[in-house]
Amino acid sequence: MTTRVLDLPRDAAGARVDGRRGLRLPRALLAALLLPALLLAGAEIAVRAGAVPANLMPPPSEVAATLVYFAGHGLAAHVGASTLRVALGFLGGAGAGLLLGAVVALHRGARGLLDPSLQALRAIPSLAWVPLLLLWFGIDELPKLVLIAIGAFFPVYTGVTSGFEGVDRKLVEVGLLYRLPPPVLVRRVLLPAALPAILTGLRNALSLAWMFMVAAELIAASRGLGYLLSDGRETSRADIVLAAIVLLALLGKFSDMAMLALERRLLAWRDTHLGGMERV
Amino acid sequence: MSFLEIEVDDKRFGARQVLRQLRLGVEAGEILSLLGASGCGKSTLLSIVAGLDRDCNARVRLDGRLLDGPDAGIGFVFQEPRLFPWLTVADNISFGAGLRNAPAQAISALLDEVGLPGYAEALPKQLSGGQAQRVAIARGLYTRPSVLLLDEPFSAVDAITRMKLQDLLARVARERGLTVLLVTHDIDEAVHLSDRVVLLDRQPGPARAEMPIGLARPRMRGGAAASDLKRRILAHFDLDLAA
After folding, report:
1. What b/e string do you get for B122-152 counting C-beta neighbours within 10 Å, with b at 16 or more?
2. Is A65 left (phi over 0), alpha (psi -120 to 50) or beta?
3. Which of B41, B49, B157, B196 could disulfide-pair with B18, CB 3.0 to 4.6 Å?
4. Which chain A positions have a beta carbon within 8 Å of B99's beta carbon?
5. What is the CA A21 to chain-centroid distance, rounded?
C-alpha cells in the first residue's frame, strides 16, 4: 500500500519540526545547563573570596575532587545500592499501583471497597511509616524497599484511576458499537486512552522513589547515597554531603529523562500544543 | 414490514421523556432523514437503533430480526469523527474487525472510495475535520453493514466540505445499496440526500409528518423543486422560506 503522509499539511509542518530537531536539542541542552553553570561559578567565586565559610560550603571544585576520589573508592557500590533499592521499590510500588488502580477504576464494587481506605492511607506522611516499618521488618533491606514502594504506589494508583475514569465516553461508545468484550475494550480503548495519565503517574512515582530511598537510607543503612549524606553530616564533611546531593540530582534527572523518552515514544500520537518542542 | 423497523414506546432521561410512541420503518436501500429541532430526541433515537442506548422501552428489527444490542449489520457515523488518536487511519478503519486482520487492499480501496487515497498510515492528528469525517465514514462502511446510521455527520465542517461529503454519502449509498437513516437539522441536506424525510416534534410523540422526496438522482442543488420541498418542510415548522 502506498502512503502519502508527507503530502498532508499538518504532517508537513511536523516534518519541518523534525528537521530542526537536530539543531534545537543542543541549544535546549545549553539553555538547561546555563543556570547550573552560573550557580557553580558564583559559588566557586564566593567561597574563594571568603564570602562563605569553606567548611560549610566547599567550593564546587572541591566537591568535584571528592567525587573523583570516591569514584575510585567505592562510589559505584553506593550508587549501585541506592539504584537497586529504587528500582526494586519502584517496580513493587508501581506494579501494585497499576494493578489496584485498574481494579478500582474498572470495578464499581472494588472502588467502593478499596478506594476510601487507600485515599486515607495516601494522606499519611511518608515518614510516619518509618517507625512501624522498622518495628515490623527490622533495619534490613525490606523496610527500605517497602518505604520506597509506598512512595511509588500512590502516584501510579492515582494516575491509573484518574486516567481510566477520564476516558472519553464517546470513544468507549465506538468500542461498544463494535461489540468488544470487556477485556478487549480495556486493552484497545481504555488503556491507550488512559496512557498519558498513567505515564505521568509513573514519572511522578519514580521521582518519589528516589526521595523515599534517601529517607530510608538516612535512617538505617551501611551503603548508599543516603548513607553518604548521613556520613558526611556526622564527620562534618560538607563536600561529601554535596557530592551525594549532586549524584542524587544526576541520577534522578537521568531516570526522569528515560521516563520522558518512554513517554514521548508511547505518546507520539498526541496532538499537543507544544508540537515538537523538546524538554531536556 | 420494512427492512428496518423501529418502535420506541418510551425513552426518558430522568423524569424527562424524550421519545414516546414513535414508529419508523425504513425500506431497503432507502435514505431516510430525520429532521427536527435540537433536543427532540433524534440522536437518542439513533443510539437506540445502534443498540448503544438500551435503557428504554423500544424494539428494533433488522430484516425481521429483533436486535438486542449493537449489530454487525448496522454501521454508525457519529457527529464527531471519534477516531482513536493512537491508531493510524488504516487501524481506525478496521477497528471493528480487529487490528491484525486488516487486509491492506481493502483499506486502500475504501480510502479510494471516500476520497483519501494514500492516507492509510496517517495519524488522526494529521487530518483536517473533513478528512477525519471521511475516515469515520470509511470505518462505518468497513464491516459492510446493510444499514448506515449518521448523526449530523457533516455539521462540524465548512460549507464546501459539507457539500462534498454529502455527495460522497449519496454516491456510496447508491453504489452499495445501503439503507441510510440520517439525523440532521439541515433542511437542504435532507432534501438533497433523502428519499423520504420524517419530521419530529420537540414534544415527544409520533412523527409530526413525513414527506417523500421525489427528485431524480443524481441531484442538482438549489433547483425549483428542491426549494418547493424546503418551503413545504418549513411550513410544517410554521416557518416561511422568505422570512
Report:
1. bbbbbbeebbbbbbbbbbbbbbebbbbbbbb
2. alpha
3. B41
4. 188
5. 25
Residue B204 has pLDDT above 70, yes or no: yes
B176 in Cβ contact with B103 (< 8 Å): no
Q: Which of A260, A264, A241 is nearest to A252 (CA)?
A: A260
Residue A269: list chain B partners with CB under 8 A: 85-87, 123-125
Q: Quick check: A3 and B119 CB within 8 A?
A: yes
Q: Which of A233, A222, A226 is nearest to A55 (CA)?
A: A233
Q: How far is A28 from chain B, CA to nearest CA, in Å?
A: 26
Mean pLDDT for the stretch of residues B86-112: 86
Model pTM score: 0.83
Q: Count Cα neighbours of A175 within 13 Å in the Cβ-side half-sphere.
A: 21
Summarize pLDDT for B118-172 with one digit per residue, the tens: 999 999 999 999 999 999 999 999 999 999 999 999 988 889 989 999 999 999 9
Residues of A in contact with B102 (CB under 8 A): none
A8: nearest CB among B90, B122, B143? B122
Query: What average pLDDT does this structure show over B217-230?
Result: 86
Cβ atoms of A216 and A226 within 8 Å: the answer is: yes
Distance CA B11, CA B41 (A): 9
Q: Give me the torsion for CA of A238, A241, A247, A250, rounded to 10°.
A: -80
Tell me the three cell numbers of residue A80: 549501585
Choose among B24, B13, B77, B46: nearest CA to B206.
B24
3-state class (DSSP) for residue A205: helix
In the predicted model, what is the mean pLDDT of chain B? 91
Residue listed under C-alpha cell 454501521: B75
Contact B70 A179 (CB under 8 A): yes
| DSSP code, position B239 | -
Q: How far apart are CA A67 and CA A221, in angstroms?
A: 20
Is B70 within 8 Å of A3 when comparing Cβ atoms? no
Instruction: Find the CB nearest B104 among A1, A9, A174.
Output: A1
Q: Do A5 and B121 touch (CB under 8 A)?
A: yes
What mean pLDDT is predicted for residues B84-108? 86
Determine the average pLDDT of the residues in A153-181: 96
Contacts of B129 (CB under 8 A, 6+ apart): B81, B156, B157, B158, B161
* Residues of A whose CB is below 8 A from B119: 3-5, 8
Across the interface, do A179 and B121 touch by the CB < 8 Å criterion?
Answer: no
Alpha-carbon distance B4 to B49, whole Å?
Answer: 9
**CA triplet B179, B182, B188: central angle to 5 degrees?**
120
Chain A residue numbers with beta carbons less than 8 Å from the beta carbon of B129 are none
Residues 6+ apart with CB under 8 A from B110: B93, B138, B141, B142
- Give this complex's ipTM: 0.90
